[in-house]
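Let's study today's protein:

:::
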Amino acid sequence: MGRILLLVLIIVAIWLLWKAFGPSSWKSRNNAEPPAIKGPDDDEEFLWNIDKQRFKERREKEARERAQREAEQRRRKERRPDDNPENPEGPELP
């Protein structure tokens, strides 16, 4: 009797494994539809465009800051009489 019960349990286990992992579960995932876009945060192209826009804005801001620093350095150089190329020894003291 025990052998028959064991045989039935093995058959049931095989049947359950077949149902869980059999050919019906082998459906190709490539054929599945792409996920529906529900909002702008799901759209990869939209997110990519936002990243590009932020990158461009950051570069423009850095360029403006760099230009301001360079302009300020030029102004400082023009104000200093010590850096005057006509008189390399510096200003004359009385």
